[in-house]
Queue: 3 jobs
Job 1
Amino acid sequence: MKTNAAKTETQLLGYGSGSLSIELEGQDLKHIDEFVYLVVNSVEGTEADVKQRIGIASGIFKMLSKIWTERDLSKALKTEVFEVMVISALLQNSEI
């Protein structure tokens, strides 16, 4: 297994702020202040996570607009598409 320096980032966790200077394969790794892991924002917490989930679900809903207006598709099929595509994105990794 090999670490890809171009895809690797560093983050300083804990109290206070600072930066890291880590080099891999002769390249300085990019330092970031926040990241999203399993759709949970590491810095802003739950409120930002909820806003992000709503944004993702809303985007998926809009991308499927042709399905919602299609007269040849049943309401049952549209409901199933909604639950599978939109609701699952909204509730990903949530405890219900």
Job 2
Amino acid sequence: MPALWFETAKWFEIIEPAGAVSILLAASGLDYGLGDPWNWLHPVQVMGWAIAYLSKILLSVFKRPFTQRLAGTALAIGLVGGSGLAGGWPGRQRGVIRWRAGGFRW
């Protein structure tokens, strides 16, 4: 049984550890050198806007500390779940990622 929660892909078994490190270093170098353009909308910006907007609403609706804590927990779970669904949606549409009981299958 693989150590990870998803089944090991065939392409991953081909890459030697030294090759994987070189790929990681090359990708890190490209990311550092190119980075994200300043004028592009970043998903973390959208998540921050959602947190700010929904926090104001939830804090005005729920007055007791316990219900505010529950609302904050629901907001956190919803944000993580929503971003996971949004990020996985294109892959599922192309058939790259298939859901099965117990996790995603690549």
Job 3
Amino acid sequence: MRSPSRTAGRSCAPSKTSSATGFNVSVAELDDANLWNRATLGIVAISASSAYLAGQMQEIDKAIQRLANSLSAEILESYVEDIAD
């Protein structure tokens, strides 16, 4: 998601979150940390079930889209990468 970032110029440590949205994921700000109006977020979840993860990532994508819309932000790219053993 690209939006105004309050953490521009700072490195952010990964944060594990289980918020009111119910997602048990880790989130970190990546790349573009030196640009005040952009944020690249990495979101990670781990499970033995790839089907569960696919559904969870779809729900997370929808939640982020709603958040971006409420903030008048634009998501430039969103993708899921499944890394199996």
